């Protein structure tokens, strides 16, 4: 390379690296504004997750067209590796890069993948610009990135093909079908014209490549850089156990929850930059689909990220890491008056940036988080903002206020006297832990508030108790000593009340030396299993469908398969808190299949893509005044299969589905909602 060209190359390389580093450093400063959080534990597990979700593209391969992204991803890696010899061998002609510059097999694999990238981007363009599902927004950024990638691929093909035509042959290119094809196009050209062409195309390629490198960290495609780190630092806790406890006794704690963008943790802020705006979250969010204000994609990739970029720039300029009370005096000159800086700092996260309707629309179903291919954690951000609203602002719906007061006074959201908690079992000869005294009890049957007080859920409680007795299971209930587990309380943001319930329940459970718990409520299951350990409550918790399956498989429960049962087609509804939260899909289905005459069918949205009933996250106690009712939509999905019954495994789901049926079907066409235990009990 001539000296003048080398100087130009070194200058633009330096400027590109400088601009790239500056852009990335700026984003890192924004992320560092977040609260501390330890995500460096268990490096082996984290690396395994990175390999599965990033290198293996696990979640994307479960999606339609996901294989296209797989090939684009790996094609991108091999194209990037190919840039090393492509650039260095022209700048330093005497250098030979091992393998990358010498192996014909490397070039063969690279060109196969590059060709697949070329084709995959065409498919992607058709999907985004012609077919275009609602979750994919039209944007100049998306089009520009595709143009840049095509520019990199095509100029590299043309440059290397011309180089091969000039050289006549090249051992490393012997299997490269693209280079040989392009070389044929240049056949007959003079050495001088080929040399000029190679130089011209090489420089065009370098300018496109460097433009791409500078553009990436300044665009939404920053997720290319952020996703590997986001996946590595993803939570290793169970899906249902990722809510961080709050130290309510910390006298230095001025605020509860998150009311300012910098109060999110650094990992929560990193999520915003890792979001690729693929829209899988919004495409599976029941709140978004039913017309509520919440759009998890918009919340994460636009609302919170844009606010972080705006406020973070001001905070870094002022040299502050918090806009809390500790900096109130220092910020006075900026937050009073009508300065642009003051307008940014005075914006309230909840109200000005995120609407209250958004954060209270969430059902905590976890569809967004479970299906996110880049390991973003949406739900806890919403819960953290709810905590702020409930515990700092005392600003939440009156229906929740009533439910909280009922729990405080009667230990259940229905407000029924705690003395009635065991009334459902009065004719079943079920002993309480207190009555068992010194007798060893192997299992505690945790009935839950719904199973104790809701008339419909009590039928499932009775069925489960009868099955346990028929199988000779050594179990007991807490009766009047059982209190609300706190599931909806915590997810509705009232960490203080949740802490009281946890403390009382753990004291009771540990006093009786409880080790194993059976429950028919997936919400209780998740809370007892995944929330309680952080407070000293460690128990083996199992859902009743799982336990009944184990009883049958072990021969402890024998079913009478000759009993006459009506033939019926049952369409099954996966509850969020047993399905996505516990990844238990087979146990309930297995029980339905054991019942003579039952034909089990699936809804279109099932397993991890199941559609929520609408009751989770405290929504059971809130009016649904915006958009379409989520439970009615789920009932429509069920009735579209023309079933004789709907199968469900959760008391909340049963209530919501039955309410939806009342709204959707007349008495003649109404179908029952059946828990599998209600069928199994008829066979003992």
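Q: What amino acid sequence fits the structure above?
A:
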């Amino acid at each position: 390379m001539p000296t003048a060209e080398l100087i130009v190359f070194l200058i633009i390389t330096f400027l590109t690296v400088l601009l790239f580093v500056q852009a990335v450093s700026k984003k890192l400063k924004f992320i560092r504004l977040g609260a501390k959080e330890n995500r460096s534990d268990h490096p082996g597990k984290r690396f395994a997750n990175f390999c599965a979700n990033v290198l293996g593209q696990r979640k994307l391969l479960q999606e339609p067209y996901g294989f296209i992204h797989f090939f684009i991803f790996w094609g991108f890696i091999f194209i990037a590796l190919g840039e090393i010899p492509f650039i260095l061998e022209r700048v330093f002609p005497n250098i030979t890069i091992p393998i990358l510059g010498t192996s014909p097999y490397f070039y063969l694999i690279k060109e196969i993948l590059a060709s697949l990238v070329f084709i995959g981007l065409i498919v992607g363009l058709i999907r985004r610009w012609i077919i275009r599902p609602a979750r994919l927004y039209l944007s100049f950024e998306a089009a520009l990135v595709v143009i840049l990638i095509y520019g990199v691929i095509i100029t590299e093909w043309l440059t290397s093909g011309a180089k091969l035509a000039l050289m006549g042959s090249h051992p490393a290119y012997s299997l490269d079908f693209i280079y040989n094809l392009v070389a044929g196009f240049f056949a007959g050209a003079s050495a001088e014209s080929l040399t000029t062409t190679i130089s011209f195309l090489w420089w065009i390629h370098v300018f496109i490549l460097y433009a791409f490198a500078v553009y990436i960290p300044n665009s939404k495609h920053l997720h290319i850089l952020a996703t590997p780190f986001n996946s590595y630092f993803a939570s290793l806790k169970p899906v249902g156990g990722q809510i961080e406890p709050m130290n309510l006794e910390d006298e230095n704690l001025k605020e509860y929850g998150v009311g300012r963008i910098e109060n999110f943790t650094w990992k929560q802020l990193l999520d915003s930059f890792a979001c690729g705006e693929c829209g899988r979250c919004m495409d599976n969010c029941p709140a978004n689909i039913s017309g509520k204000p919440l759009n998890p994609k918009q919340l994460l990739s636009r609302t919170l990220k844009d606010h972080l970029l705006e406020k973070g720039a001001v905070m870094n300029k002022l040299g502050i890491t918090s806009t809390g009370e500790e900096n109130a005096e220092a910020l006075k000159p900026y937050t009073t008056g009508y300065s642009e800086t003051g307008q940014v700092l005075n914006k309230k996260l909840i109200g000005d940036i995120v609407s209250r309707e958004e954060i209270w629309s969430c059902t905590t179903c976890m569809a967004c988080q479970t299906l996110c291919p880049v390991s973003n954690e949406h739900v806890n951000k919403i819960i953290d903002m709810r905590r702020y609203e409930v515990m700092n602002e005392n600003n939440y719906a009156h229906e929740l206020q009533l439910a909280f007061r009922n729990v405080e006074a009667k230990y259940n959201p229905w407000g029924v006297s705690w003395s009635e908690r065991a009334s459902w079992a009065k004719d079943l000869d079920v002993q309480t832990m207190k009555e068992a005294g010194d007798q060893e009890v192997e299992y505690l049957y945790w009935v839950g508030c719904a199973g104790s007080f809701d008339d419909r859920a009590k039928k499932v409680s009775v069925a489960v108790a009868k099955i346990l007795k028929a199988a000779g299971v050594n179990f007991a209930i807490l009766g009047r000593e059982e209190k609300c587990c706190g599931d909806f309380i915590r997810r509705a943001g009232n960490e203080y009340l949740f802490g009281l319930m946890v403390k009382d329940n753990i004291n009771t459970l540990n006093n009786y030396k409880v080790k194993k718990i059976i429950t028919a409520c997936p919400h209780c299951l998740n809370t007892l299993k995944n929330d309680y350990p952080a407070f000293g409550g460690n128990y083996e918790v199992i859902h009743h469908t799982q336990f009944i399956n184990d009883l049958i498989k072990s021969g402890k429960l024998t079913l009478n398969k000759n009993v006459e049962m009506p033939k019926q087609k049952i369409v099954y509804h996966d509850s969020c808190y047993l399905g996505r939260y516990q990844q238990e899909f087979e146990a309930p289905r297995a029980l339905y299949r054991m019942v003579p005459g039952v034909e089990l069918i699936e809804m279109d949205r099932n397993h991890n893509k199941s559609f929520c009933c609408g009751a989770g996250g405290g929504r059971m106690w809130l009016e649904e005044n915006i958009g379409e009712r989520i439970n009615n939509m789920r009932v429509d999905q069920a009735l579209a299969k023309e079933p004789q019954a709907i199968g469900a495994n959760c008391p909340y789901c049963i209530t919501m589905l039955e309410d939806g049926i009342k709204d959707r079907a007349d008495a003649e066409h109404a179908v029952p909602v059946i828990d599998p235990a209600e069928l199994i009990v008829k066979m003992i």
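Q: And what stands out in the fold?
A: The mean pLDDT is 94.
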